[in-house]
Amino acid sequence: MGLIQRIIDWIDERAHVRELYKSLMIDYKVPKNLTFPYVFGVFALVTFVIQIVSGMVLLLYYKPSIADAFDSATYTIMGEIPFGWLFRHIHATGANFFMAIIYLHMFTGIYYNAYKKPRELVWIVGWLIYLVLILTALSGYLLPWGQLSYWGFIVTTEIPGSLADAPIFKDFFKAIAETIVLWMKGGYVVTDITLGRVFGSHVLIYPLLLLALVGVHLYLVRAAGISNPDGIEYDKKKHPDKFVPFHPYMTLKEGAYTMWYLAIFFFFVFFHISHFLPPDNFEPANPLKTPAHIAPEWYLLAFYEVFRSIPSKFWGFVAFSALLLFLLILPVLDWSPLKSARRRPLFFVAFLAFMYGSMALTILGSMEPTPLNAKLGMIFGAVVFGFFLSLPIISFIEYGWYKAKGGKEQ
Ligand code: HEM
Hints:
1% strand; Helix Hairpins; two-stranded antiparallel sheet; mainly alpha; globular; 15 helices; Cytochrome Bc1 Complex, Chain C
């Protein structure tokens, strides 16, 4: 018996790891017709690990004070620490890939209606992850203390201040707006206190929250079972032919996709880092010099465009908060038990409109704020709102068709 075998036996006698492995990997069955987009959850997991590991290295050398932050990121980490640049490149690329993967993962869930019974909790916890992830990205963006970091942070913290423009209960909303902005900035101006808070949140509070939420998310996915691209819930006992053991089928397939993902990831890390560490951010933050055009990072541009294309700041804020809320209550809006865009023609069309609308808003959000862009922003904003608001009606019509064809409750 080899040494490794004996070590495993020794551990197994005490921790029963083989039993655990069997129940988690072999006895756990997944639908055998899962499509490629189902791999985005795994990519998200891989990226999360990459962020934690690379972040831990950066944490050893970064200094969270206004006097030192820029130098520690730009000179110490990038130039003096062996391979410090590599970890910073990985972390910056990871932040962008993480958001991109999460959007793809969410779009997949929406396309296959994976937010419906019995997966509502998976969706709700996923939504919470999305919010914390945005906060994590925003807080991380301030840390290098470059011009973009600083002004991006100022613009973002001022957005909740729009509540002060409320047409009614002015004093009430103004007090709330001031409190939120003050709380986010840690004072009336951005100081060491702000940077300290943002740093603490980015390196400990948000990652811990994420770890806990991702753990619950994965548990819930296992408890409810992964959805099926056909939108039909098969009983694992009655239809064993529709399922395969998680290992080796999924592990090998998703492992192979992950290799491709990492290849693309590291291609950007080594050859196209300027997309993720823009040259403008290698100029130290200067509160007296406002850049000509400040926009949030790409993953928030759609919300930003909705916000700025509405003339009233208050209603702009309400509209973009409503979008976030609509995402959360998708299982309620899309109430019928029918699942998967594959067999829901009206939903399929609405989904396409939603995708194109969100992409158009993202592109417009990166452009100059001209009157034409504001009008286009309103139109595409209406398309995205239209998607959510039409879901109850689409559910009603499609369910009617389904019943008329003699379909039963699922
Ligand atoms: C760190 C972030 C996240 C990680 C690591 C993660 C991981 C995963 C994994 C591994 C799965 C199972 C396989 C799959 O369908 O891909 C899954 C399923 C799912 N996730 Fe996430 N996820 C994350 C964030 C989110 C977010 C932000 C949402 C939505 C707002 C979400 C919604 C869902 C849904 C609805 C499912 C069930 C899919 C199905 O059964 O078809 N997840 N997630």
